[in-house]
Design a protein that fits this description.
The complex is a heterodimer of chains A (834) and B (123). Chain A has 17 helices and 25 strands. Chain A is an alpha+beta fold. Chain A has 4 domains: 12-99 and 479-555; 114-135 and 169-474, Beta-Lactamase (2-Layer Sandwich); 578-661, Signal transduction histidine kinase, dimerisation/phosphotransfer (DHp) domain (Helix Hairpins), CATH 1.10.287; 662-827, 2-Layer Sandwich (Heat Shock Protein 90), CATH 3.30.565.10. Chain B has one domain (5-122): Rossmann fold, CATH 3.40.50. Helix content of chain B is 46%, strand content 20%. Chain B is built from 5 helices and 5 strands. Chain B has helices at 13-25, 36-46, 62-71, 89-97, 110-122, and strands at residues 5-9, 29-33, 50-54, 80-84, 102-105. A 5-stranded parallel beta sheet of chain B has the order 2-1-3-4-5, sandwiched between helices. The chains are: A alpha+beta (834), B alpha/beta (123). The A-B interface holds A 597, 600-602, 604-605, 607-616, 619, 621-622, 640, 644, 648, 651, 655, 661-662 and B 12, 14-15, 18-19, 22, 25-26, 56, 85-89, 105-113.
């Protein structure tokens, strides 16, 4: 394969060789290098982009992670701080409530230390006031929204994180602490009664419930067990105020006919309740004379939590039950006693004095309907904190009835109730999170450390304060930051993607540009390589071609050759050498020609003299000669003749070799050539007693040759055959046409030609051997001239010896008659002059 | 035509004297010239019947001599046999173009020369 390619390559001309070599050596590496460089460049570029992208994404991920972590940390920290703050606030609230309640203890003990007296009781009633926040008529809720930036510090060094909230601008009215102050005798008969700002004369027997507040008080039954200084404190008693919630697309709303519900229903009827303090009164003898009671307006307790907002707002005229940010109070039996929505506060039916049963789940309500009990009975008998889960919806029937007081023990739709209950069982405070209505809510609880009377039965004391807050509100800032971070990461990501895409585009643009550039460079290089190759090749082959032409011309005899030389390279030197050689050859050739001419002329003159003398004597022009002299002269004459032929042949040969003979070609009959040649040699043949057989087809074509020269050729061949065949031999002369050639054949049954001599015989002065040449008298130039003349005609000569027997059936061979065949091939149309 | 007077032009003395001796012996009147100038003089002076003219002779070449002979009315009918050692075709052609009636290449035997002369005698 490779060898074939190599052979094909070396057979190409110089131009294709140069072109192929240059293309292989220059352009292919250029293209490969270009391609590799470009590929590396774009690969590296793309790799860098990928790396950049990975790094950027890594950074983004890290940023995201850091953001997440820090936000989570922030959220956690904020939540913890908020939780702590809210917890603290809850504890403070509980503590303040307890303090407030203890103050009431002091009030009643002071009052008990005096003898019962209308004036004194009235005086106490009048002097026991406490501010409550009220809604300004027609003005909505001004609130105390702290507007940061309104007041700025004068000293710039205080500017950092400066905060200022103006004082709450709430409308307040002074409200009597007590709704009622009474003195009750040991049987339960009211003796003194201050109520509604005056001394009442409608004195009732409070041992009977129907005579009490909302027909629900049973305090008197507890009083007889009280010792001196002991205080009975009742539960919160008030008429239950109904309320209805309904769902709207904007959320749950409160029907306007419902109880007061802060912002949600500011004009509703408020829960009006009391908490009654009672302690025995003794006279100067230490005899118990009765009991002093003081009914605290429950508004003052609710006031502690009604305006509390566990957000930046801190306090509000109207709390917002729907917002989830508000504070509640629950009594020691987990009944709601203060709520943003007053219809959630547990109360009594003032007509019956019966407690309105707490709101239960629909499921539990179903149990109730199957129980056959009244709802009051059913709820009373219901085990506390059974299966509490917010997955249960509240009973629709109770909602429809508008009687939905929150009694934590049975409010099985609100698991947080259980949490508060458990958290406050040993007093103290705490908090937990609860997922409420799809929002994480923080709920804090703190037991109200008030342990007077029945409230001393448990560490829970008076009950507990709970504050609810939307967790998300605590870490609002963190969430804003989080959103910002996420957004900026998203933007950053987009930016990175965009930048990378741009870079990618740029790289591929660059790569495409590079490819174009490489292609153009390669094309230009290829073009220049082709041009250079052509130029070099012409520079190289031009002179070479001229040299070849010169050499061909020289071979045809035109020795006056001069190649134009321009370059000084090897080719130039070659041309120079050629010119010098041609010049030298030309000179030598001239000298040779001159020598041959002169020599032949100079030889002929003495030969002429000998010839004249010898021939004249032999013919008797110098007198009669005897036979012996004649024989001797004959020998001399033979020598002279041989010398003559030698001179003639020499001259011929020198001219043939110098290509100086001109062929005088004409259309010649083949038969004529052979006949005339045979005529010339007939005497010689006869003297050797050879038989000559002529074999020429009658219809053979003529041939374009120099007749005399070809006759000479035939004479030469025939003479040779005659001379080199033992006497009485046979010579066959044949002519025939083969394709575009005429073949002249001379065959004999002579001595033949040994193998080694078949090429030698055509060389100058060769004779088969010297003895034979003596015998036959050849010049040694005949075949050389013959061959030259045939070749000059564009033909060639072949020789075969010994003659194969099968070729000529009528040629007797054997012994020394080995035979020889000479065949001359001549083109029919003569030599086409090149 | 009768041939009686032969002009031999040859600078090669031995040859010209041999031929003079032999032709004289055979009864011809023989004139001998050794150069071209002498040859022309003798042609016009002796008006020979045939001329044997060597080509390579001093002063005026045989070619020139032949041309002059053939140019002149008086001498143009005299057969000129050129006899020369110059045997190449172009030399032969040159001689024939100069007007030679026959171009004989040396060496040639005496009988052959005689044969050529006698050929004109028979005409």
């Amino acid at each position: 394969m490779l060898k074939t390619i190599y052979n094909k390559f070396i057979n190409l001309g110089i131009l294709p060789k140069l072109l192929i070599s240059y293309l292989i050596l220059s352009i292919i590496p250029l293209i490969i290098v270009g391609y590799i460089a470009n590929k590396n460049l774009s690969d590296t570029g793309l790799q860098s982009v990928r790396r950049a992208e990975e790094m950027a994404n890594e950074n983004l991920r890290a940023a995201e992670e850091i953001g997440k972590t820090s936000i989570a940390d922030s959220v956690q920290a904020l939540d913890r701080k908020s939780t702590e703050a809210i917890e603290l606030r809850t504890v403070e609230l509980a503590s303040r409530i307890a303090d407030f309640l203890y103050e009431r203890d002091r009030d009643i003990l002071i009052l008990a230390s005096f003898d019962p007296d209308h004036a004194r009781y009235f005086d106490v009633y009048l002097r026991s006031n406490r501010d409550v926040i009220i809604t300004k008529a027609g003005k909505g809720a001004p609130g105390n929204k702290g507007k940061a930036g309104e007041l700025q510090p004068k000293n710039p060094e205080n500017k950092e994180a400066w905060r200022h909230l103006p004082p709450p601008d709430f409308s307040r009215v002074s409200k009597p602490l007590y709704i009622e102050i009474t003195f009750v005798d040991l049987r339960g008969q009211e003796k003194i009664k201050v109520v509604d700002g005056k001394i009442s004369h409608k004195l009732a027997d409070v041992s009977r419930k129907e005579n009490t507040y909302c027909k629900a008080e049973d305090y008197f039954s507890h009083l007889k067990y009280l010792k001196k200084g002991e205080i009975h404190v009742s539960r919160v008693i008030g008429a239950y105020v109904k309320g209805w919630l309904y769902k709207t697309p904007e959320g749950i709303k409160v029907k306007p006919e419902s109880a007061y519900a802060g912002k949600e229903n500011p004009h509703g009827k408020k829960f009006e309740g009391i908490v009654r303090w009672a302690t025995p009164v003794y006279d100067g003898n230490g005899e118990k004379t009765g009991y002093v009671t003081m009914a605290l307006d429950h508004t003052h307790i609710m006031e502690f939590t009604d305006h509390v907002v566990p957000t930046e707002e801190r306090l509000a005229v109207l709390s917002d039950g729907g917002s989830g940010n508000y504070a509640f109070i629950w009594d020691n039996n987990d009944r709601c006693i203060s709520h943003a929505r007053d219809f959630f506060i547990c109360g009594f039916d003032p007509k019956t004095g019966k407690e309105v049963p707490g709101w239960i789940s629909q499921k539990t309500y179903g149990e109730y309907t199957r129980s056959g009990l009244t709802l009051e009975e059913f709820v009373r008998k219901l085990p506390s904190f059974r299966n509490f889960t917010q997955e249960k919806p509240g009973s629709i029937e109770q909602m429809k009835a508008g009687t939905v007081p929150l009694d934590c023990r049975v409010l099985d739709t609100a698991p947080q109730c259980q949490g508060w209950h458990e958290g406050t069982q040993y007093g103290g405070s705490g908090s937990f999170l609860i997922l409420w209505s799809g929002l994480w809510k923080l709920t804090t609880y703190a037991a109200i450390p008030y342990y007077t009377g029945p409230y001393g039965k448990s560490k829970r004391g008076f009950g507990y304060v709970t504050v609810g807050a939307n967790v998300d509100d605590f870490h609002k800032d963190a969430n804003i930051t989080k959103a910002k971070i996420e957004n900026s990461i998203l933007e950053e990501g987009k930016g990175i993607l965009e930048a990378n895409n741009k870079t990618r585009e740029l790289i591929s643009e660059r790569a495409a540009y590079n490819r174009k550039l490489i292609t153009i460079i390669s094309l230009l290089a290829g073009l220049s390589v082709i041009c250079i190759s052509v130029v070099i090749s012409f520079n190289l082959t031009g002179p070479l071609r001229r040299l070849t032409e010169g050499a061909v011309a020289m071979s045809k005899g035109d020795l006056e050759q001069a190649i134009e030389v321009k370059s000084k390279d090897e080719i130039g030197q070659l041309a120079q050498s050629f010119n010098e050689m041609a010049k030298a050859i030309s000179i030598v050739d001239k000298m040779k020609s001159e020598f041959v001419t002169i020599a032949s002329h100079e030889l002929r003159t003495p030969i002429q003299a000998m010839m004249l003398g010898v021939s004249g004597i032999l013919e008797g022009y110098s007198g009669k000669i005897d036979e012996e002299v004649r024989e001797d002269l004959e020998l001399a004459k033979m020598g002279i003749e041989r010398l003559m032929r030698l001179v003639a042949n020499l001259l011929d040969l020198s001219r043939i070799e110098a290509q100086k003979i001109e062929l005088n070609t004409s259309h010649t009959s083949v038969a004529e050539i052979i006949d005339r040649a045979l005529a010339e040699v007939s005497d010689l043949a006869h003297s050797h007693r050879h038989a000559i057989v002529k074999d020429i087809p009658a219809d053979i074509d003529g041939i374009m040759v120099d007749k005399d020269r070809i006759i000479q050729v035939m004479i030469n061949l025939l003479s040779n055959s005659i001379k080199y065949t033992p006497d009485e031999g046979k010579i066959i002369v044949k002519a025939g046409r083969r394709e575009k050639e005429i073949l002249f054949t001379v065959a004999d049954n002579g001595y033949g030609i040994p193998d080694w001599a078949k090429d030698e015989i055509f060389k100058k002065f060769f004779q088969a051997d010297s003895i034979m040449s003596q015998k036959v008298g050849g010049s040694g130039l005949g075949l050389t001239i013959t061959k030259s003349l045939v070749e000059r005609h564009g033909g060639y000569i072949q020789c075969e010896s010994p003659v194969p027997e099968e070729v000529f059936s009528d040629l007797p061979l054997g012994g020394e008659r080995k035979g020889a065949i000479f065949v001359i091939h001549l083109p029919v149309s003569g030599i086409s002059e090149v | 035509m009768e041939i009686r007077k032969i002009l031999l032009v040859d600078d090669d003395k031995p040859i010209s004297s041999y031929l003079e001796k032999k032709f004289t012996k055979l009864g011809y009147t023989v004139y001998v010239a050794e150069d071209g100038e002498d040859a022309i003089k003798q042609v016009f002076a002796n008006l020979p019947d045939i001329i044997l003219l060597d080509v390579k002779i001093p002063r005026i070449s045989g070619i020139e001599v032949c041309k002059r002979i053939k140019k002149d009315e008086k001498t143009k009918n005299i057969p000129v046999l050129m006899l020369s050692a110059k045997a190449q075709t172009f030399e032969i052609n040159e001689g024939l173009q100069a007007g030679a009636d026959k171009y004989l290449c040396k060496p040639i035997s005496f009988p052959d020369i005689l044969h050529e002369i006698r050929a004109y005698e028979r005409m």
